[in-house]
Amino acid sequence: MKQNKMTGNPAQLRAIEHGEGAACVIAGPGSGKTFVIIKRVIRLIEKGVSPGSILVITFTKAAAIEMQQRFTKETNSMYPEVLFGTFHSCFYQILQQSGSRTNNTVTIMREADKYNCLGHILKDLQAREKINHKSVDYDKETIKLLLSEISRVKNDGAGPEQASKDVPLREYFPNIFKEYRSLMKEQSLIDFDDMVLMCHDLLSSNRDVLRLWQDKFKYILIDEYQDINRMQFEVVKLLAGKRENLFVVGDDDQSIYGFRGSRPEFMLDFKKHFYMPKEILLDVNYRCSKEILEGSLKVIDENNIRFKKDIKAGSQNRGNITGLTFEDKDSEYSYIADKLKNLSLKNTAIIFRTNTEATAMAKYLINRDIPCSYRERITLFYEKNGVSDVISYLRFSNNGFKRSDFLKIMNKPVRYITRESLTDDTVELSKLAAYFVKKGRMSTADSVKKLERDVRMIRSLRPYLAIHYIRNVLGFNKYLKDKYLSDKARLDEVMKDLDDLMEQCRGFEEYSEFEEYLKEQEKIKEISKNTDFVNKEGVKIMTMHASKGLEFDNVFIPDLNEGIIPSRRSISAADVEEERRMFYVAMTRAKKELCLSYVRGTKENPSMRSGFLRPLSEYFCTAR
């Protein structure tokens, strides 16, 4: 390969020219990390390294494809042997190509199968727990949280006994975990997390296979290293071997995937794991204006667990941070909607901590005919757990006793009604009670008779009073308190959602009015179907997690209130620091204009601004 003169700032060139051994490149937002990785691969080839011995690992398929395309363009497609891939694709390749040595048959489990598998386990658990009358849910939200915790436990290399205290059904989690693994093994299925574990077991136990892959990948480069989890780290360390030609690029201040087992310590402790590694700071931010960079650094500097960094602005953009206070969300969202009229929407983003706030903003903009698009599917307020259950009660009572509605509510609270008892598309409660009498299950029959009386009452009340009845008389509130016994923050969230639902229903005299209102909200779903996010016209609405890796001229970050960011569920110091990193990530998406805002509330119902805004108090002199 003909040698080209490398360009870049001094720190970038030090990283690109790094020779043998381990190197940790700390690359803040907009510092050119992708540029450095591609140029380093080119430089290695110029030095005589075989292209087929270079492995570049990213965390997403999209990032791997983009990086490979940029490399291919710069090298005129001369070196297709360089392997670009995600952790999972690389581990899958190792397992597949080592199959003849290990007799491993790798079949990846579909997401739907995970939910079905865990749902089956929870139904069995519910049947077993009749003795102490505990509420064992197997709704979609519970399954999602359990699957997330199963994934975290696997990625941490921990035992199920070390599960988070907040996980649903905590006391049963070890059994749920073991049964889940057992069912998967019986059906010869694995998930993506298992690929990491299997790869680790394979490379740890078979020296010949390990030596084969160490000889294959003599140079390993990893992008977004701050997102690595323990088991991925252990496999990478095995592959690097004694050569330790491991070149990692990342930013500990952007480590925001703790729920997947990622922690900034893997980057901060790099020196402890490798022999005399080189540490390089890419100290120029080419994205953000000087004002935005300085403001974001003031925020992240409050964190204790981090590399201290002296970063300079390389962008010549003139920028501005605006801090605003609003009495309520309506005035806050109205201000943003008015500002959007004078901005390039495709270069503008509105970033929220959670999908709940993003949904509210989307609804507001849609009602004002302002184009917007989502990076990911947004969960509607009416699809949220708790809210959707109450709506199903209303719909079942008023819309012809449909089986589809009844399935969502029949055991909320627990009545021990089985799916097998529902044979028709319409549920006749008197007939259902008779079924359980015939089976000799009198307590369930009595529960169904009570439900029949409750349904008649719900049908006779206007929506606001009907929801009050469902929550306080029928027993739904008590059911929720039992369900979230070990997670008060989640209980508070659900209860607030139900309070909001009641307020939205206050003006409806008839159920039919409420049903029409729900149909109106379905318009929001159409927005979430957008797939061409980056090039889509319209303002981009997204969560802080989804914003990572993107950049915009103009960024709004509303709803910066305590309890939203940091989340009320963030109790430990580590949790709070991760929440602050999320805010930092959101701030550093802005190139020119950054607008931060929060709601102060009223005297009767005050709201507190986020503690993360304390270093930025000088910007919050305007109330609206």
Describe what you observe in this structure.
48% of the residues lie in helices and 11% in strands. With 624 residues, the protein is of the alpha/beta class. The strands form three sheets. It has a seven-stranded parallel beta sheet. Helix 27 links the parallel strand 13 (552-557) and strand 14 (590-599). Mean pLDDT is 89; it is low at 130-134.
In short:
By secondary structure, this protein is an alpha/beta fold. The strands form 3 sheets. A 7-stranded parallel β-sheet has the order 11-12-10-13-14-9-15. A 6-stranded parallel β-sheet has the order 3-2-4-5-1-6.
How would you summarize the topology of this molecule?
Elements: H1 10-16, E1 23-27, H2 33-46, E2 54-58, H3 61-74, E3 83-86, H4 87-97, H5 99-102, H6 111-128, H7 140-156, H8 173-186, H9 192-205, H10 207-216, E4 219-222, H11 230-240, E5 246-250, H12 265-268, H13 270-273, E6 278-282, E7 284-285, H14 290-300, E8 312-313, E9 320-326, H15 329-340, E10 348-352, H16 355-367, E11 372-374, H17 387-398, H18 403-409, H19 429-438, H20 442-460, H21 463-472, H22 476-483, H23 488-505, H24 511-521, H25 523-528, E12 539-543, H26 544-547, E13 552-557, H27 573-587, E14 590-599, E15 622-623
Parallel strand pairs: 1-5, 1-6, 2-3, 2-4, 4-5, 7-8, 9-14, 9-15, 10-12, 10-13, 11-12, 13-14
Helix pairs in contact: 1-2, 4-9, 6-7, 6-8, 9-11, 14-27, 17-18, 17-20, 19-20, 20-21, 21-23, 22-23
